[in-house]
Every structure is written in C-alpha cells, then in structure tokens.
Amino acid sequence: MFKVTVLAEALGEKSGNAKGSGKPYHFYIQHAMCELNGERRRIQLTHDKPEDALEPGSYFVGPESFFVDGYGSLKLGRPRLVPVTQFKDRASEFLRSAA
User: Fold this and answer.
1) Whole-prediction pTM value?
2) Which string of b and e fits 35-74 if b means at least 16 CB within 10 Å?
3) For the chain, which residues make up each domain, given as ranges?
4) In 10 A of CB 93, how many CB atoms?
5) Is 89 in contact with 59 (CB distance < 8 Å)?
6) pLDDT single digits (tens) 49-91
7) Cα 23 to Cα 73: distance, rounded to the nearest angstrom
8) Residue-wise pLDDT tens digits, 3-34
9) DSSP label at 53?
10) Is 3-98 CATH 2.40.50.140?
11) 3-state class of 87 per DSSP?
12) Where do the DSSP E strands lie in 1-99?
C-alpha cells in the first residue's frame, strides 16, 4: 500500500507564468509524508483551490489514481487520497465495478 500522511492544513501558494508558454499558473501546496516499502519521504500535494486541502491524517492512494497510458504502461495520475478509515469500502466498491 502507498500510505500518505497529511501533516497540516496549512497551505503554501505558488503562481507565476510558465517559461515555455508564458501562460499564468496558480496552485496551492500542502505538505505530507509518503510511506512506500518501509521508506518515508516528504512530498507536496497540489490543489487548485484552498478548500480542496485535506485534513491532517492518514490516507491511502485510491485505485482511481492509476491509469494505463497509450503505450500500455501503468501510471500514477494526480493522487486521489482516501482516508484510511474509508479505504476498505472504496477498494471493495472499485473491485466490484471492475469485475
């Protein structure tokens, strides 16, 4: 399992213009830790709006976060985090729909 622990509700904010296209961007950053194969690493979660910030706590990466690209490779898209307390129900629901 890929476990993510959100450390705080506090958000950082980033905005500017993309170097290549010059298009403006604006997003919010929330700090978290991920745990994979016994290793802990600091990560940043990005949000389009401040109200999308997650409550501090433990989450798993939901199955809808993964997709198969045009070359048949498994990829992780933008993580859809599911609270640990809800994960079992969501995983069972996903498995039923995939059958």
Assistant:
1) 0.72
2) eeeeeeeeeebeeeeeeebeeeeebbbbbebeeeeeeeee
3) 3-98
4) 11
5) no
6) 999 999 999 998 888 899 999 999 999 988 889 898 876 666 6
7) 30
8) 899 988 878 899 999 999 999 999 999 999 99
9) P
10) yes
11) helix
12) 3-6, 12-17, 24-36, 39-47, 57-61, 66-68, 74-76, 81-83
The residue whose two tokens read 């399992």 is 1
How is residue 46 written in tokens?
Answer: 């990005």
CA distances from 38 to 2, 3, 35, 76 (A): 10, 10, 6, 19
The SS3 of residue 7 is: coil
Residue 79 has phi, psi (to 5 degrees) of: -60, 130
* CA-to-CA dists, residue 6 to 22, 48, 55, 77, 99, angstroms: 32, 17, 7, 18, 32
